[in-house]
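It is worth pausing here to work through a concrete case rather than discussing structure prediction in the abstract. The textbook approach is simple: state the sequence, then state the predicted structure, then interpret. We follow exactly that order.
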Amino acid sequence: MLWAKQFTEIVWLDSNDNKDQYGTYDSLLAVDALTSLTTDYQNAFDDLRAYQESANDWLFGYLSYDLKNDIEDLASENTDSLDFADLSFFQPKKLITIHGNSAEFIYLNMVSEEIEADFNEIISSNYLNEAPNPFTDSPVKISMRIFKDHYFQQVNEMLKKIHRGDIYEANFCQEFFAENTSIDPEKTYQKLNSISKTPFAAYLRMQENYLLSASPERYLKKMGEKVISQPIKGTARRSADIKEDEALKHSLGQDIKERSENIMIVDLVRNDLSKSALKGSVHVAELCKIYTFKQVHQMISTIEARVSKDKSAVELLRETFPMGSMTGAPKVSAMKIIEELEASKRGLYSGAVGYFTPEGDFDFNVVIRSILYNAKEKYVSFSVGSAITAKASPENEYQECLLKAKAMREVLEG
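Step two, the predicted structure:
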């Protein structure tokens, strides 16, 4: 990834050697745009479909949460200090795929003569094996967009709407930020990734905008006629004590509230996939399975479906976006209430980063456990959230948010 610093368009996707039965690559690095598409939410999916079908090539980029406004009659009017575009993709001139001990250089013809020189530069500089730098240039002073009392107030408002029957569940998020702050994006990403080692980590640069992501969650993957979604709902801390750690993991698996949250989102994802899937093909491959990562235990379900060969990749994304784990149920009502009660525009947070292949397959993560940085505006941000259901305790939800924020705060505050 460090070799890529010379470019202004970069996407690095890293599985961190996590074993994934649906995984195609261990890592992917795409750099240097030949063509690109950057736009706001209006007609964004139509524009992306036209771009993806005309390029008929590898495309890398992101979908922001606020593309919901292109799909439904919704708006995003909260504070936005990051100022990222709603959608941005590029067709890379240079792509390197890594699987096991093999690396494949997939370059466009116009730069194919540079493969050997690039390979030698990467190997001689040992970029691929360089140890993470453990610090940003200086500690960052983090502020909270809302404080604890206000968080409790907003969660209680959401609980009123749940008890009234407006929704069953909604994901409520809060932003942490730093203004007039410069960070080293590469060092910050390296430290965050070394702490978390998640299966859907991502480093993205689009000009002056950066995403440094330690995401554990897959939004959606398409492999031929097969589609997979893996929503996360349910989080527990890790312990250095082996017996306590196993007890925490077991407790999460048996937690009635966490299981009910997860199952609600499974139903939502099944419904979203049924819009595209062949009749009778949607099924739950794993329900409420506990996965363990360096920072936390997570409850993850896996939903699979089959789609017709001629199904548009972008239409499949449109019909399932945003991911249910970051919205709630019913989905549209939850998104309206989220907009009403949250204090910040989500932007790329709880959106997705990933790629399309020339064959029309794709793989996208969920942008959580991530730091966003606008270098031009010198603005650093990360957000965390939790699912609010009828039995939610504002104190417990607040503590869950602090747990999820731990890695980002550790990286930025030193």
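Step three, interpretation. The mean pLDDT is 95. The longest helix spans residues 394-413.
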